[in-house]
Design goal:
mainly alpha, protein disulfide isomerase activity, two-stranded antiparallel sheet, transmembrane, membrane, transmembrane helix
Amino acid sequence: MKEEKDMGTGDPSFPKAIWPPKALCPSCYRSSSRTSDGALQVDWNEDEVFPFLVNYYGKTLVSSYKETYMESLQGRTQVGAALADDASSSHAARVPIGAALGVAAASCTFGALACFWRTQQKNRKYSYRLHSLKKI
């Protein structure tokens, strides 16, 4: 929000705001104050924010984040925990293996068809030139 204000790149149709607002979750805020440049500084009560998000968005959406967040809090140094931290910080989504394989197969098929089509086009162009040269 501050960056968009400073650069003048904000979209007035989609203004940025602190979320959740105090009206929706007053217990999520420990305190809030304005900085010298007018920006809102919020001290979040994280013990209240997470239950609010679970209630607001649903348990399915939040469960993946909770698992990775709890693992990072426990300080696990295993490779799996590191990968989970990377996934949560990059906003990566979990995709069913069948869907991933379907997309991969479709992508490979499309690539193969495009290559075949291009080869056919080149062959037609080449044979047309040969045919034209024979007439001369």
